[in-house]
């Protein structure tokens, strides 16, 4: 049985004091047996959140990392630095990073390797643009992105990757994919993983849906047999809403 995983992606929101205050409100309530709860927060808030999360079952994640351990890369943060802080997860290849920060499939692949090198679990984002969907390219885009990101991973590593299928046209737009459509694409992504490895790896990999997930639709997504969780932007920013998302994954 795959354990459901709800991950909040705060994007570029919250100061340190806002993050700490959020955490004190969700602590306890957003810790639900049988559900993994992860908060992926801005770098500046990570030390305080890791400290606040000690003794809780809520894991803290980053939203990006550089693929090198260190070097002359002004403004970047590496996996060494994140694991040293006690961060457990890292989002890799979010569509906003692919679109605004020129992340290619090759870079995303290197970042997945860097995450494993430092004991971080990658949350790998894949998903199509609106034009690609309209051209019937959704599954092909997800296949190409998934295969590139898994290149060179051992079966043991592959089984630990969390994939987030996020159709780009559904992010922050209030337009969500139907749960049936999301299930269809996610079942296909699982087949792609099976093709790269075997059925046991494909069965172990957790695949989230992301894109306008809210407390009122999270259950519907999670009721689909291949959807193992959600990666949530806007609705993860308010404590009550985040708690409802985690409860909805029970
Ligand atoms: O990009 C997302 C999560 O990574 C989705 O964002 P929204 O939930 O705000 O649509």
UniProtKB/TrEMBL annotation:
Matches recorded under InterPro entries: Aldolase_TIM, TIM_sf, TrioseP_Isoase_bac/euk, Triosephosphate_isomerase, Triosephosphate_isomerase_AS
Subcellular location: Cytoplasm
First-tier enzyme category under EC: isomerase
Any GO molecular function: triose-phosphate isomerase activity
Keyword terms of this UniProt record: Cytoplasm, Gluconeogenesis, Glycolysis, Isomerase
Keyword Aminoacyl-tRNA synthetase part of the UniProt annotation: no
GO terms under biological process: gluconeogenesis; glyceraldehyde-3-phosphate biosynthetic process; glycerol catabolic process; glycolytic process
GO cellular component: cytosol
Enzyme Commission number(s) from the entry: 5.3.1.1
Residue numbers annotated as active site: 94, 166
Superkingdom of the source species: Bacteria
PROSITE patterns (alphabetical): TIM_1, TIM_2
Residues involved in substrate binding: 9-11, 172, 212, 233-234
Catalytic activities: D-glyceraldehyde 3-phosphate = dihydroxyacetone phosphate
Magnesium recorded as keyword: no
Family from the record: Belongs to the triosephosphate isomerase family.
Functional summary from the UniProt entry: Involved in the gluconeogenesis. Catalyzes stereospecifically the conversion of dihydroxyacetone phosphate (DHAP) to D-glyceraldehyde-3-phosphate (G3P).
Subunit note: Homodimer.
NCBIfam families (alphabetical): tim (TIGR00419)
Protein known as: Triosephosphate isomerase
Source organism: Paenibacillus beijingensis
């Amino acid at each position: 049985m795959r354990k459901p995983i709800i991950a909040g992606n705060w994007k570029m929101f919250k100061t340190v004091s806002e993050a700490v205050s959020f955490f004190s409100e969700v602590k306890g309530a957003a810790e639900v047996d049988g559900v993994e709860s992860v908060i992926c927060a801005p770098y500046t808030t990570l030390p305080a959140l890791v400290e606040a999360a000690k003794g809780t079952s809520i894991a803290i994640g980053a939203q990006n990392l550089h693929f090198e351990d260190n070097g002359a890369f002004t403004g970047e943060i590496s996996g060494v630095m994140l694991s040293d802080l006690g961060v457990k997860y890292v989002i890799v290849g979010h569509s906003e990073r692919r679109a605004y920060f020129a992340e290619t499939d090759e870079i995303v692949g290197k970042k997945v390797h860097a995450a494993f090198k430092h004991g971080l679990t990658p949350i790998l984002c894949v998903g199509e643009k609106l034009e690609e969907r309209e051209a019937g390219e959704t599954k092909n885009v997800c296949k190409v992105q998934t295969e590139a990101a898994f290149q060179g991973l051992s079966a043991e590593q592959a089984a630990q990757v969390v994939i987030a299928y996020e159709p780009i046209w559904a992010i922050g737009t209030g337009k969500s994919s139907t749960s049936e459509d999301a299930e269809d694409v996610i079942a296909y992504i699982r087949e792609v993983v099976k093709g790269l490895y075997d059925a046991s790896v494909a069965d172990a990999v957790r695949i989230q849906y992301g894109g306008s997930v809210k407390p009122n639709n999270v259950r519907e997504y999670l009721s689909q047999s291949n959807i193992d969780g959600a990666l949530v932007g806007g609705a993860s920013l308010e404590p009550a809403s985040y708690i409802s998302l985690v409860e909805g994954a029970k």
